[in-house]
Design a protein that fits this description.
282 residues; alpha+beta; eight-stranded mixed beta sheet; two-stranded antiparallel ribbon; 29% strand
């Protein structure tokens, strides 16, 4: 959710229990403005909160003029002091995939696991147990990146791609219609496309290159059956004045949009654990 409209966004997302205490709201309003100024970001998003056993991580992201450029991620334990996280790498994601369970809420906390590695000593080859230590900060980077790539959402038309390449906020976007808001095809993954690049020119013939340049949610796997929601749950609230999408793959991710208005965004409030049982639940 955009930090410039934080109070309204939190109100729209409050139906999912994603609220913050008044003092946390006040702290965020002040500190995120300073983050935007000090780091010279075009926009700052309040990404959400990862719940820890000792403390919670509050997450914010800074965007450049090009909205699809890699986002800068920051975290805070008190909503006032923010620390910049390094970019996620494939090595980080692979390394942290062995860590299970809740976050502690301490960036310096180290997880330990043993790994069998082949050792050579002359002509002898044997296996030895090596203790691997992973910092919680590294796991935090990895989980945020995975959530972003899998379930960060934006409605069709909210961004437009210029013929010269950069992607900008669409100032003329006035929201989805009520009928459009009820369809998964009206929402895109807020990242560089993956599936779209594999489509043929014939399949792209009906697409508007300035608006349809990201992957649609309707192709997400698992899709589910007609009687089951698949990866997403869509609900209309407040007398059809608000549409809410909830991820079943990453429980805690909520997207909201008021049809006919520019008000939209997403927030994650959860433990940072993926629902690995989803394919068996459909």
């Amino acid at each position: 959710m955009d930090a410039d409209s934080l109070l309204l966004s939190l109100e729209l997302a409050s139906g999912s229990g994603q609220g913050l205490s008044p003092d946390r709201r006040a702290s965020l309003l002040t500190s995120l403005l300073l983050v935007k100024r000090d780091y010279r970001y075009s926009r700052v998003l309040f990404w959400g909160r990862i719940l820890g056993l000792v403390a919670d991580y509050y997450i914010a992201q800074g965007l450049d003029e090009d909205q699809l450029a890699p986002r800068k991620t920051l975290y805070s334990l008190n909503c006032m002091e923010w620390s910049l996280l390094p970019p996620a790498t494939e090595e980080m994601i692979t390394q942290t995939s062995v860590v299970k369970g809740r976050f502690m809420g301490d960036p310096s906390h180290e997880y330990e696991y043993t790994e069998l590695q082949k050792m050579n000593e002359g002509d002898k080859v044997y296996e030895e147990e090596i203790v691997i230590r992973i910092k919680e900060e590294t796991r935090l980077v990895s989980i945020i990146d995975q959530i972003d790539k899998a379930v960060a959402i934006i409605p069709r038309g909210a961004l437009f791609k210029s013929p010269f390449g950069p992607t900008h906020v669409n100032r003329t976007f006035e929201g989805l219609t009520l009928s459009e808001a009820k369809k998964l095809s009206s929402y895109f993954h807020f990242r560089e496309p993956i599936e779209l690049k594999n489509k043929t020119l014939l399949e792209k013939a009906d697409l508007d290159p300035s608006l349809d340049f990201m992957d649609s949610l309707e192709h997400d796997i698992p899709k589910g059956l007609p009687s089951s929601p698949g990866s997403w749950s869509i609900q209309m609230e407040r007398g059809n004045a608000l549409v809410v999408l909830r991820s079943l793959l990453w429980p805690g991710l909520t997207f909201y949009h008021a049809p006919g208005t520019k008000n939209c965004g997403y927030i994650y409030v959860g433990t940072g654990e993926k629902n690995m049982d989803l394919p068996f639940m459909l």
